[in-house]
Amino acid sequence: MKNPEKTETKASFAREHDMTVGEIGAANLRIQCRGINVYYGEKHAIHNVSLDIGRNEVIALIGPSGCGKSTFLRCLNRMNDTIVGCRVSGEITLDGQNIYDSNLDVVPLRAQVGMVFQKPNPFPKSIFENVAYGPRIHGLVASKAELEEIVEGSLRRAGLWDEVKDYLLHPGTGLSGGQQQRLCIARTIAVNPEVILMDEPCSALDPIATAKIEQLIDELRNHYTIAIVTHSMQQAARVSQRTAYFHLGKLIEVGDTAQIFTNPKHQLTEDYITGRFG
Ligand SMILES: Nc1ncnc2c1ncn2[C@@H]1O[C@H](COP(=O)(O)OP(=O)(O)O)[C@@H](O)[C@H]1O
Ligand SMILES: [Mg+2]
């Protein structure tokens, strides 16, 4: 049985202390989302979400299946543009620039705001080519030596170099699942992103491969802003500094990860983290 008084207290607290933006000081602000709505045809999938994301932080997006985590994540690099019938309104700025500006080229945007998916998806090409492809098409390299340097640097930063340095011409698809996911991270890093979006990046991996990716995420935070969708509350608690809880397309609460998991301010958040639903 829920305690109605507690629900009331929490809800009124939530109204008094707007917890659904998580504002960040200007110096650390990286991404600012204001009044984001997303529709798939008639379906209203994201309702008026405003959220700040900071420099060098990992923010976890959590919530029950279907609550809009992936949809919201895809707003941040305009991947929803690729879905027929999907419409996004509101404003998102990256370092002060409106990413939905009609003059903005989405190709460099998607390099700046890279994405790693649930299922590792290396190209059916060599390990080297998987990483070299992006810098080449984005015109980031002037010579073969420079390209080799970027490939090595990206694989090192993704924690994969030592495992693959003698097999660079072998197919990327021949690697283990965890290695493939680190290869996809290296591919993202190779085009100098500022932000990396990860949508349940470990859900196809075993616990050891998952632990490696989690450790990597912690290291990557020194260089990039990371937004990660995860269905694992343990993972959110391990890798993120802030956590945003979504419910039925709404952002219910955002705050320091420790606070969200130990002292949520909203009843819905509490119900989810204590396993009452989800
Ligand atoms: N391509 C799509 N077309 C229509 N509806 C979609 C599409 N993708 C997601 N949805 C709907 O939008 C809602 C949010 O989905 P999603 O963002 O995938 O949630 P989550 O990632 O939290 O599980 C769900 O109701 C889902 O059915
Ligand atoms: Mg999803």
Q: Could you name the CATH topology?
A: Rossmann fold
Radius of gyration: 19 Å
Q: Biggest sheet, in brief?
A: 6 strands, mixed
CATH architecture: 3-Layer(aba) Sandwich
Name every ligand kind in the structure: adenosine-5'-diphosphate, magnesium ion
Helix content: 25-40%
CATH superfamily: P-loop containing nucleotide triphosphate hydrolases
Distance between the termini: 17 Å
Please report which band the strand proportion falls in: under 5%, 5-15%, 15-25%, 25-35%, 35-45% or over 45%.
Answer: 15-25%
Report the order of strands and helices. Answer: HEEEHEEHEHHHHEHEHEEHH
Q: Strand order of the main beta sheet, please?
A: 6-7-8-3-9-10
How many beta strands in the DSSP annotation?
A: 10
Helix/strand/pairing class, anyone? alpha/beta
Give the CA-based shape: globular
What tags apply to this protein structure?
binds magnesium ion, six-stranded mixed β-sheet, Rossmann fold, four-stranded antiparallel β-sheet, 10 strands, disordered N terminus, alpha/beta, 24% strand, binds adenosine-5'-diphosphate, 278 residues, globular
Q: Describe it for me?
A:
By secondary structure, the protein is an alpha/beta fold. The chain has a single domain, classed as 3-Layer(aba) Sandwich (Rossmann fold). The protein has 11 helices and 10 strands. It has helices spanning 4-16, 69-75, 106-112, 127-137, 144-157, 161-164, 177-189, 207-220, 233-239, 257-262, 267-273; strands at residues 29-40, 43-54, 58-62, 86-94, 97-98, 113-116, 195-199, 225-229, 242-247, 250-256. Strands 6-7-8-3-9-10 form a 6-stranded mixed beta sheet, sandwiched between helices. The longest helix has 14 residues, at 144-157. The two termini are 17 Å apart. 42% of the residues are buried. Bound molecules: adenosine-5'-diphosphate and magnesium ion. Magnesium ion binds at residues 69-70, 229.
